[in-house]
Amino acid sequence: MSEKVIAKFKAIDDETGDIHKVLVIRNFIEHKTTSGYQEVPGMIRFETSTGLSAHRVNDETFEIVQTGQRLRKLRKRD
Questions:
Q1: Cα–Cα distance between 67 and 78 in angstroms, integer?
Q2: Hey, where are the domains in the chain?
Q3: Residue 58: what are its φ and ψ, rounded to 5°?
Q4: Distance CA 76, CA 41 (A)
């Protein structure tokens, strides 16, 4: 099994103004087929660039598991 960063985005803690980089990481599972091996996409997880786990609350809101900080995904125009 391997993991790959499939996306990155910035998110802000509206209470403190801190900006975090959030990584979207997908597991890939190696699956044996009759013609060889194939990577099958698995679960997605989120973590900050500093290695803290993040939980998606909704499409725009994330929570850092270890601290409870709520982050709002920044759009390009923010």
A1: 24
A2: 2-73
A3: -155, -170
A4: 28
